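Chain X:
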Amino acid sequence: MSSRITPVLEGQSSDPGVNERLTQSREGWWQDTQMFGVIGRVPSLLNSIVPVFESFFGGGRIDAHIFEMMRLKTGQINDRKHRVSGPGMEEMINNRETK
């Protein structure tokens, strides 16, 4: 049995706000429906945390390469194989961390 939480997919939630946020997460600046789908299992949490993410990460406040490094490192920490697998990925992450 997997210990991973199955994310809510677009259109699956009974909360229209969650479905809209999942669509925005796919089409918008974040481009990660998996993380938002897991958080969306608790609609009030998703609806309250997204504005925090937008405030912190949105609007170019963090350079694009730093933002991508944060996503890669988070994926590595969480062992999200769909995000950080493949030949040379570990080396790429380590090289970026030293810059």
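Chain Y:
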Amino acid sequence: MLGINDTDTLKLGDKYVLYKLDIETGMYWLFDIESGSYFDLNETSFYILSELDGKKTLADIKERTLETYPRIDSNEISKDIDELVSKLIEKKVLLNKEVKKWVPKEKI
């Protein structure tokens, strides 16, 4: 994992937007508005990404996710969030807050 920890605060890069099609089956996407590419998401991934606002720590998000999805084991939630975050940092979708500016985490 790219050196992330539970005290990190992350957010989506400016060129990414989340979208939910409000129907019973639930369809969720993460769009790159510059390239037009997108990622299909499940409900839980959509929830996690919507919580990444640059203010909440990963620990906060893990706790809130466990409250929202109480049937999922806390160790599984933590592992899944860490894996999702790592993958999206590698793809430069998520940014880590620095003192003066936002930069891709892998360049820190």
